[in-house]
Amino acid sequence: MSRTNFDQLLQAGCHFGHLKRKWNPAMAPYIYTERNGIHIIDLHKTVAKIDEAADALKQIAKSGKKILFVATKKQTKEVIAEKAASVNMPYVIERWPGGMLTNFPTIRKAVKKMANIDRLMADGTYSNLSKRELLQITRQRAKLEKNLGSIADLTRLPSALFVVDVLKEQIAVREANRLGIPVFGIVDTNSDPNNVDFVIPANDDAKDSVETILNACCAAIAEGIEERKVEKADEKAADAQAETEEEVKPKRARKARKDAPAEEAAAPAAEEEAPAAE
């Protein structure tokens, strides 16, 4: 069963591409036609590509790995933040920090610095500072929170990137390509799909278009997370049962040893009674 349908995408305006003069020829396989100087995306292909991407995202989430969502466009920031947070995934909606993936240890240091400021504020270490010094630290903390707050829980490199507008986020895509991290991307007619592993051809400017696609993808991620929980619960139950059986085995063995002498004593008595019966 498809995760989204043609009518939903049509209603959200996913089919509207860019002006014909701005097109990238590599997107030709995903273009249905041209109308009033604007390319129209083939939504049948979009439906198939959403399903393909959603299945892959589900498997990544099921294996317990993280997917980093990236969208710094003003009109899509809120949608990305909301949807990524709903499935407990990290996201970047402010400026992409250069070297975020290729120089990940440095980014982690900045995140740790933010946590360190919080700790020192909580234990009263900063209480003796002047107002000016405290203000500087507070501003530094706010800046770190704005740029890196949403990736504070990302302790290792993500297993995949989900990008809205691969042209605008080309630095992020390039870093992921260099490290071999698979890229999922909403790709418009003005972008190059060749650096994207899972291409979703669609309008990447309209909020409704992005939201409709994210709904399908995040629902798949949520399914993967839920299935992982169920599997873990089943494994736990199986382990508990195995432990119980291991505990029961020695008890059964002891009981068997206790019963053995009584059975042996009863056997000769039975043999003696047998001739008398005849």
Textual characterization of the structure:
The chain is α/β, with parallel strands linked by helices. The protein contains seven helices and eight strands, in the order αβββαβαβααβαββα. The chain has helices at 6-11, 43-62, 77-86, 104-122, 131-148, 170-179, 207-277; strands at residues 16-19, 31-35, 38-41, 67-70, 91-92, 160-164, 183-187, 198-201. The strands form two sheets. It has a five-stranded parallel beta sheet with strand order 5-4-6-7-8. Helix 2 packs across helix 7, helix 3 runs parallel beside helix 7 and helix 4 packs across helix 5. The longest helix is centred in the last third of the chain and has 71 residues, at 207-277. The N and C termini lie far apart (77 Å).
Keywords summarizing the entry:
278 residues, five-stranded parallel sheet, 55% helix
Strand order of the main beta sheet, please?
A: 5-4-6-7-8
Q: Based on Cα principal axes, name the global outline.
A: flat
Total number of β-strand segments? 8
What's the helical proportion of residues?
Answer: 55-70%
Largest sheet: 5 strands, parallel
Element pattern in H and E: HEEEHEHEHHEHEEH
- Structural class comes to alpha/beta
Tell me the span between the first and last alpha carbons.
Answer: 77 Å
> What fraction of the residues are assigned to beta strands by DSSP?
5-15%
- In the predicted model, the low-confidence regions spanning at least 5 consecutive residues are none
**How many H/I helices?**
7
